[in-house]
TrEMBL record, chain A:
Cofactor (UniProt): FAD
Acyl-CoA oxidase/dehydrogenase middle domain location: 122-209
Keyword Zinc: no
The keyword Transmembrane helix is annotated on this UniProt entry: no
Superkingdom, taxonomy of origin: Bacteria
Stored InterPro entries: Acyl-CoA_Oxase/DH_mid-dom (IPR006091), Acyl-CoA_Oxase/DH_mid-dom_sf (IPR046373), AcylCo_DH-like_C (IPR036250), AcylCo_DH/oxidase_C (IPR009075), AcylCoA_DH/ox_N (IPR013786), AcylCoA_DH/ox_N_sf (IPR037069), AcylCoA_DH/oxidase_NM_dom_sf (IPR009100)
Domain Acyl-CoA dehydrogenase/oxidase N-terminal stretches: 6-118
Family: Belongs to the acyl-CoA dehydrogenase family.
Protein name: Acyl-CoA dehydrogenase family protein
TrEMBL record, chain B:
Name of the gene encoding the protein in the UniProt record: pimC
Keyword Oxidoreductase: yes
Classification via Gene3D superfamilies: Acyl-CoA dehydrogenase/oxidase, N-terminal domain, Butyryl-CoA Dehydrogenase, subunit A, domain 2, Butyryl-CoA Dehydrogenase, subunit A, domain 3
High-level lineage: Bacteria, Pseudomonadati, Pseudomonadota, Alphaproteobacteria, Hyphomicrobiales
GO molecular function: pimeloyl-CoA dehydrogenase activity
Protein's name according to its UniProt entry: Pimeloyl-CoA dehydrogenase large subunit
Annotated Acyl-CoA dehydrogenase/oxidase C-terminal domain residues: 231-396
Requisite cofactors: FAD
EC number: 1.3.1.62
Residue span(s) of domain Acyl-CoA dehydrogenase/oxidase N-terminal: 6-119
Amino acid sequence: MDFDLSEEQRLLKDSVDRLMADRYGFENRQRYAKEPEGWSRDLWSAYAELGLLALPFDEAHGGFGGGPVETMTIMEAFGRSLTLEPYLATVILGGGLLKQGGSEEQKATYLPQIASGDLRLAFGHTERQSRYDLFHVGTSAQRDGGSFILNGQKSVVLHGDSADKILVTARVAGSRRDRDGIGLFLVDANAPGVSRRGYPTQDGQRAAEVTLESVRVDSGNVIGNPEGALPVVEKVTDIAIAALAAEAIGAMDEMLKLTVDYLKTRKQFNTTIGSFQVLQHRSSEMFIALEQGRSMAMFAAMMAQEQNPEERRKAISAAKVQIGRSGRFVGQQAVQLHGGVGMTMEYKVGHLFKRVTMIDTLFGDADHHLSNLAEAGGLMAA
Amino acid sequence: MDLRFTDEELAFRDEVREFFRTALPDSIRRKMIEGHHPSKDDLVTWSRILNTKGWAVPHWPVEWGGTGWSPVKQYIFRDELQQAPAPEPLAFGVSMVGPVIYTFGNEDQKRRFLPRIANLDDWWCQGFSEPGAGSDLASLKTTAKRDGEYYIVNGQKTWTTLAQHADWIFCLVRTDSTVKKQEGISFLLIDMKTSGITVRPIQTIDGGHEVNEVFFDDVRVPVENLVGQENKGWDYAKFLLGNERVGIARIGISKARLKRVRELASLERIGDVPLIDIPRFREKLAAVEVELKALEMTQLRVVAAESRREKGKPDPASSILKIKGSEIQQATTELLMEVVGPFAMPYHPEEEGRNEPTDGPDWASTAAPTYFNWRKISIYGGSNEIQKNIIAKAILGF
Ligand SMILES: Cc1cc2nc3c(=O)[nH]c(=O)nc-3n(C[C@H](O)[C@H](O)[C@H](O)COP(=O)(O)OP(=O)(O)OC[C@H]3O[C@@H](n4cnc5c(N)ncnc54)[C@H](O)[C@@H]3O)c2cc1C
């Protein structure tokens, strides 16, 4: 067992940290949010130059063959700086689905374009009635010769408004909540019948409502088995949850740091408020919650590669529960201990709080995953 | 001991409930149910409806518009109002500066201000906190220097709620800096139109605009706007903050929100099962209801003891109401977030007359902003940490 980063991983961490320190201060971040797409094209190019967009892909596809630990390193840095670019949507979700489910030809076509920064993707899975169940798919895909005709609506598609292509789940066979019969389709965002309405999300990122009306997808853009895509979708969302866990840890770490700094400088009653033991203890509790979360983020990174899907899903659910709970506690207390300052848009801590809150609602909140884990028999083998 | 309401109190409750059912404009009721902020106009409209009925300021002395109701009836009234759910009359006027004026002000001030507060002709805001004076309010630095028949005010207030609408601000100002800090503070009433006052908005994390910074640059305030005695302002402020805490449990608001959670959780489904039928969710909801019932009984005990207490001396147990009341309200906002699920994400800035479709169910858009915004209630009105200090010192004797 080794919890330390390798030499290469350390170099990666240093270069991402340096990029964030140079270009992703809070004021810059607020400026990037006002750009037309809600994130910075310049930074996107910088990520491409550093190889971050190529990280998880195989060398044959222009990638670096990075694993979950590399992803964790990047995401933690992104969490700390509250980055806005569609990294999760494009590289982790979109790229992940193509890498895990795509044909050799699809991978050879698209992964290098992602790596170079030229292709942005999004993943549409949530529907009005689906809540957090990935298998709940009402959007239909009807066979028409070798192609499929898609009809339906996908909600809260992360960065769906600026994506060039959108991966969507659609039902080829079976009924609304069957695990079988679900296909995965790569849809051109400008294809006839696709309409999108973009909007900001609570945490300052972007998402879109995507409507599909008789959208034709040819056989070359079907990803994997058109009636059996769910296992790939679940695997990739589990990898994404592990990535989000790391992002949440970055955000929590930053909140704790900001809070402790604040307590050491803010004066009331002729003393720094950090001299009050109750606030020291509260900070200690935040630290404990953060470290428990960090441990589970590492566990998630390790288990994201687990071959047995049952074991993988239980582990990821466990991590999501811990991250949700730690994030809530750390976020709420960070705001509380800042007093009024924590409540303003002008200060970073409130934005971090909002981000960890939204991370909890992505791919299932703590309660959803607790139920899933309990139903699957818990973590400990009997 | 009899913990039931008397027949008379029950009849009173029905009367009040019926009034709120018929007199509250539907458009305002909808906003309240859906978690939108009532506008200034809404609040003015509603305050005048209450005032016409004679119920705008029930807790005030009868000669200034009060109703003379017993503390229990006052409680019932408030609880029903919150459950309606109707907007609460602007606290800065009716619960804060109003009682200070009728308790410590002179006759001129009472005649001049009290009727206008009751009718919301004057919108008041509270100028206590400063950048360097939050929990340690007494360290405030805004100064008022006597110059003939005027005070010249200089300094800055912050977190001033709804100052953008305000006609008047009541301020704590330093009039003597040579004495112990609590002993050099005075309570001034300042017309917001006076030259030298600047209001700068502060956006809160939910995206709303409810707080502001207020700057004073050589603002001339007539001495007749001093309340009570010079340098006694701290006593009046303590009196005011004690009153603020009593109302802060807001049990009726939590009841209304739990009702809403229950309704929405029966509409929202996981597959074919309504969320309300999922045991994990139901138990969480029930657990909050237990806490709320306990708090309601505690509140009633405080209310019942009120008639026996020395006038104007708040019960230190009211700190329980503040702490538990805020925690429960915050818990209800978490439940609402859970009901909404993935549709908590889309952000729709709150704008009057906006009619773009919302993304997801139309009741989803206020869930996250309400959750974010409600973090404030454990910070203001004396933070929950400060309330625990009060319990430790005033009740437990540490
Ligand atoms: C939305 C909102 C609206 C407001 N509206 C108004 C208004 O209209 N008018 C007005 O005058 N003010 C208003 N306030 C200000 C409010 O009263 C202050 O925020 C509050 O008094 C806390 O002060 P502070 O923000 O400076 O925090 P600080 O006092 O700096 O406190 C920071 C943290 O330290 C803790 N702390 C401080 N002292 C102690 C101690 N002795 N022991 C243990 N913990 C301690 C606090 O609990 C808090 O967690 C508002 C605030 C908010 C957030």
